[in-house]
Design brief:
single chain; 40% helix; alpha/beta; 16% strand; Rossmann fold; 5-stranded mixed beta sheet
Length: 325
């Protein structure tokens, strides 16, 4: 596995160990392994940008789950995205091409499916038409999928999965749980026009392992749950944390201008400005193919967000990360 120490990857690694698999993790020297410290695994020092380290790690394995990606909303740097997501995926697939009967599960994103200014629902067949070229993560994942398709055409056994916005316990970096904290701490709560598909980390892990076991080579599978607007997500969060706060919709052009200014001038604001470029579009998806072909199911947004909030209440060292009611 690449990215096996991350929020999603650690859940997948744990599932693999529970299944009796021998797990090899490609990890950088500086990688934090707190989430997986109790698991038996072989650590191979390396980086997806280094083909030799991939060859050391993948040699002798039956399959590779490729999850590695820059972490956090702040990492939307075009050069980094190209090197890690696009070139890294090419390196993984080139290595797999030299191995016998080696399957690769490439973990892409619904950001590589499509987005729109209106709540349109996309599926695996939808043409990529993300309207904003500054969304470097989305475009890099789209290009990485093209690399995967080219590798498949050349005989590599590769299956692509597209997780939506992943929530759940264990998000210690607050990659998505931070969005819920912003809603819970704000009064009033300001939202933009946009939306996303909400999916539980355990359901994503189940989908990835199902793709490993029975996904069709060359196919992509959307791993997304319920589609919610940003306003609906804020309302659900406030309900689950038992807080009453007015929700005010701000025009997208205003929110984007505020976010750009906050990032450029390093001015603190009451929300994560790096989320805004994505939050101001609709990333709604249809999970029918994954349910039908992989046999996976997806929790409701209420259950998914509820479990995340319950974990936030537990906090760090027993101290809740949520504000008092």
């Amino acid at each position: 596995m690449t990215g096996g120490n991350g929020f999603i990857g650690s859940v997948v690694a744990r599932r693999l160990v529970e299944r009796g698999a021998s797990v090899v993790l490609l990890l950088r020297e500086t990688s934090q392994v707190d989430r997986i410290a109790d698991l038996p695994f072989e650590r191979v020092p390396g980086d997806v940008r280094d083909g030799e380290s991939l060859r050391r790690g993948m040699r002798g394995c039956d399959a590779t789950i490729h999850l590695a990606a820059p972490g956090g909303w702040e990492a939307d740097d075009p050069t980094l995205m190209t090197h890690v997501l696009e070139d890294g995926t090419r390196n993984v697939l080139d290595t797999a091409a030299g191995l016998r009967s080696h399957r690769v599960v490439f973990v892409s994103s619904t950001a590589a499916v499509s987005a729109a200014s209106e709540p349109i629902v996309f599926d695996e067949r939808s043409p990529f038409s993300v309207p904003d070229s500054s969304l470097h993560y989305a475009f890099a994942k789209h290009r990485a999928e093209a690399v995967a398709q080219e590798a498949h055409a050349n005989g590599v056994d590769v299956v692509t999965v597209n997780p939506a916005e992943v929530y759940g316990p264990g998000d210690t970096a607050l990659a998505t749980a931070g969005n819920l904290l912003d809603f819970a701490k704000s009064k009033p709560v300001f939202v933009c026009r946009g939306g996303t598909s909400i999916v539980h980390v355990d359901d994503v892990a189940s989908g990835m392992l199902a793709a490993l076991d029975r996904g069709r080579s060359g196919e992509r599978y959307i791993l997304g749950g319920e589609n919610l607007t940003i306003r609906e997500l804020a309302r659900l969060t406030l309900e689950l944390v038992d807080r009453r706060s007015p929700i005010i919709t701000v025009p997208n052009r205003v929110v984007r201008a505020l976010a750009r200014g906050a990032i450029r001038l390093r001015i603190p604001v009451w929300f994560n400005p790096h989320v805004v470029p994505y939050a101001t579009w609709y990333w709604f998806v249809d999970n029918a193919k994954a349910r039908r072909d992989l046999g996976v199911s997806f929790r409701s947004a209420r259950e998914t967000i509820g479990s995340t909030i319950q974990w936030l209440r537990g906090g760090v060292e027993g101290r809740s990360l949520l504000p008092p009611v």
